[in-house]
Amino acid sequence: MLAIRQNFKSKNESKNTKTLMNGALQEETSEKTQLIKGQMNQKFMREAIRLSVKMMRCGQGGPFGAVVVRNGKIVSRGRNQVTSANDPTAHAEIVAIRAACQRLKTFQLDDCDLYTSCEPCPMCLSAIYWARLRKVFYGNTREDAARINFDDDFIYREVGLPIGKRKIRMKQLLRKEALVAFQEWERKPDKILY
Ligand SMILES: [Zn+2]
After folding, report:
1. Distance between CA atoms of 80 and 74, rounded to whole angstroms?
2. How far apart are the C-alpha atoms of 95 and 61, rounded to whole Å?
């Protein structure tokens, strides 16, 4: 009986030791995973920064770069091309999102992350939401951008204002006629929702 008890005790002890070891191992593994994740995040952010510097030096546009990443791999790269493409919407994030969607043949990037050299402007932030990206990493802040005359901060403030108080005037016109498309959409049986 004593032997059985001792045996039982030692079994239990060894189980406890095993659990402790497993716990420590899991903690170590999760620490390692976190470390690798952190290193990967830095690697992708450095690529976005590299693009921002490279394209700016080439004179192709403003000092901004971005990459879209899926399953630890870069899906697309974007750099600011506003002045070279004569496209005010060609911000690095938008360029990267468009390229990722083209490549993955989808209009939703919900299993992708975006790394951008600067906090996104309101236009890019909206595109990020429309594309439903999973997570966004950014380098410079919008205040940093405002300091070199990319005043996204101004647009952020405008968005929060009532329509009548914004700098660019907006006037509503022909709502009844415009509603026709919405009413038809509501009834449309084969619409693709997004
Ligand atoms: Zn932007």
Report:
1. 18
2. 12
* pLDDT tens figures, 31-63: 888 888 889 999 999 999 999 999 889 888 899
Catalytic annotation on 93?
Answer: yes
pTM beyond 0.85: no
What does the DSSP 8-state code read for residue 60?
S
Which residue matches tokens 């690095």?
Answer: 92
Of 27, 31, 93, 119, which one is the catalytic site residue? Answer: 93
Cα(127) to centroid of ligand 1, in Å? Answer: 9
In one-letter notation, the amino acid at residue 160 is: G
Q: Which amino acid is at 150?
A: F
Residue whose tokens read 């405008």: 158
The two structure tokens encoding residue 36? 């690798």
The values of phi and psi at residue 69, to 5°, are -125, 135
